[in-house]
Amino acid sequence: MRPIIEFCVSNLGHGTEALKNKLEQNPDYDVVEYSCLGNCSQCRFEPFAMVNGEIIATDSAEELEAAIETKIKELEAWDNLEID
């Protein structure tokens, strides 16, 4: 299953635009940018993204990248369990 990584355009000022652009280069990911993800109070204060509908928030874009990668590995592990 390809992970869906969603970004809010209003959150790109927190340094997530470069991360979004980087993740878009990975053909194994579906990266989507929306005008709003409905998390306005969070969006104004910290970098965040949604991975398969789950909010991932951190203190920096660098931490967000690591957290997204960790979440994707967790999802892949669950997918492998379901197949076995």
UniProtKB/TrEMBL annotation:
It comes from the Bacteria. InterPro entries: DUF1450. This is DUF1450 domain-containing protein. It comes from Paenibacillus rhizophilus.
